[in-house]
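Weekly puzzle thread! Below is a chain. First person to post its structure in token form gets bragging rights.
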Amino acid sequence: MAKLRQLGLTEYETQAYLVLIQGTQLNAEEVARNANIPIPRVYGVLESLRDLGLIVILEGRPKKYEIISPEEGLQNLIELRKRANEESLRQLEETSQEVKEVLSPIFWRERLRIKPEDLLESLENLAVTEKQTKKLIKEAKNAIDIFTDVFSWFEGVEKLLGRAVEQGVKIRVLMNMEHPLTLSTVQKLKSMKISVRQPSDLKFPVRGTLADSSKVVFLIWASPRRNRGSPRYVYRPSFSANEGIVEIFQQSFEYRWQMAKSKSLPA
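Winning reply:
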């Protein structure tokens, strides 16, 4: 039947299916004889029909084969084809994404005359991020703006910040001032004449450092912290000296700074 072939059945599968639908339970030799299928081929044909959800195999000696009702069997076939198509589409989308990642930079580089790495430089890990942050602080001439959570990395840059203040660099820090872990850090920052404010939104998922409104190092949390002991995952940290990207971060910092609160330290 041509319609069965349109559903994806092979010629032998179609012939075997039509034989089985006319009988009750048949063994492989009976199917082969009535469907004109070579014996060596019939077993594979019947197993394929079973895998498609069109027939069942009844164990015994010899094995018998019985058709499932057309309503149920063809629905099984549709569901199987649907899952296969969804998987094929998923693989196609994954491959498409991989191709885009390779080709898109080439496309835009030729049209915008700018390389992706001129916009953002990916930093390999947090250790490299800390090194780049220290470099920004050392080289800053006028201003350093830091946006963070509990500033757990303060000790690593404390001396550099102190030297920057001595050189007349204006430093501002947006951080969580209410957490028990931050009290000592806030006290040290204020004693260093560094301005500290608490942002109105403590769930801001970005940490970073701006230097002279011309360079930024930042990382973005990819998952929220459920509690203080749970791990947090980050997208790859980045550095940028691109004017547009730095301006976005600077404007965001200025807005959050204006909306932030200046908190007094407990006595």
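Puzzle host: Confirmed. Bonus trivia for everyone else. Residues 70-112 form the longest helix (43 residues).
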